[in-house]
Amino acid sequence: MTGTGAKRGRPPAFDRAAVLDAATRLFWERGYEATSICDLTRAMGIKPGSLYAAFGDKKALFKEAVQAYGSSPVGAFMAAALDEERTARGAMARILREAAAAYPDPAHPAGCLTISAAVNVTEADDEIAAYLRDLRNANLGHFTARFTEAQRAGELSKDAEPAALAAYFAAVIQGMSQRARDGATADELRATAALALAAWPT
């Protein structure tokens, strides 16, 4: 016994990052429920046994795919804007602008993975629906926190409602994702973004 706890056996004969990217794109395009293990192994170029050995089951693979998406440029732009912009309004303007560019980008499936991947999940996979719902609600919480901070700093008036404002912009962003999946262009989404930002309290 070595006592290291390391797994024995040969390392996987594939590029883990590459096959995870293939799985992510497939989940993003089709959603969780409509993506089968057969679809995944075909897209990833591996056998079912290799998928289970490397990632566990379909749910575990999906969660890892979502995590990978969240650290990619198209998945991380909201957090970056909230962290980097000096004002809450500037952060939201950047988020809307970047969503308008990213969601219809033909370089990847349309829309946002965390918004669209669970729209067709059945009761048997409620865990996945709850997982994505929690991620979306976490973003809503980040918006609310940033807007509350802006109110304390005087950027928003005392009459403003940070939680309601956050819910409004979250709804707009989710709608932009769906519109992109329905074929909306970047120009259309930029117009939507401009109209949404006009609702910012003055």
From TrEMBL:
<dbReference type="InterPro" id="IPR036271">
    <property type="entry name" value="Tet_transcr_reg_TetR-rel_C_sf"/>
</dbReference>
<feature type="DNA-binding region" description="H-T-H motif">
    <location>
        <begin position="36"/>
        <end position="55"/>
    </location>
</feature>
<dbReference type="InterPro" id="IPR001647">
    <property type="entry name" value="HTH_TetR"/>
</dbReference>
<keyword id="KW-0805">Transcription regulation</keyword>
<feature type="domain" description="HTH tetR-type">
    <location>
        <begin position="13"/>
        <end position="73"/>
    </location>
</feature>
<dbReference type="Pfam" id="PF00440">
    <property type="entry name" value="TetR_N"/>
</dbReference>
<keyword id="KW-0804">Transcription</keyword>
<dbReference type="InterPro" id="IPR009057">
    <property type="entry name" value="Homeodomain-like_sf"/>
</dbReference>
<keyword id="KW-0238">DNA-binding</keyword>
<dbReference type="Pfam" id="PF16925">
    <property type="entry name" value="TetR_C_13"/>
</dbReference>
<protein>
    <submittedName>
        <fullName>TetR/AcrR family transcriptional regulator</fullName>
    </submittedName>
</protein>
<dbReference type="InterPro" id="IPR011075">
    <property type="entry name" value="TetR_C"/>
</dbReference>
